[in-house]
Amino acid sequence: MKYESMILAGLFGACFALCVLVLGAMLTMTASPVQLAGAHAATTVASAAQAG
């Protein structure tokens, strides 16, 4: 019983540490602007359509 309790406590500690690291990374991350894949081509087509 003692062996299983130690394994369970170790697993809990590892999962808790992982959750803290992930949460910390999400809270300290700075958002960067999103660039869509075809955004440049779409604006070029729209600009050409307005010019012509």
Helix content: over 70%
Major β-sheet, in short? none
State the helix count.
Answer: 2
Gyration radius, rounded: 25 Å
**How many beta-strand segments?**
0
Ends distance: 80 Å
What is the N-to-C order of secondary-structure elements (H for helix, E for strand)? HH
The averaged pLDDT comes out at: 83
- Which structural class fits the helix and strand makeup? mainly alpha
Which parts are unreliable, with pLDDT below 50 for 5 consecutive residues or more? none
Shape by Cα distribution:
rod-shaped
What fraction strand? under 5%
SSE layout and pairing:
Elements: H1 2-28, H2 39-51
Account of the protein in words:
The chain is built from two helices and no strands. By secondary structure, the chain is mainly alpha-helical. Helix content is 77%, strand content 0%. The termini are far apart.
Which short descriptors sum up this protein?
52 residues; 0% strand
Describe this structure in a few short sentences.
With about 50 residues, the protein is mostly helical. It is about 75% helix and about 0% strand.
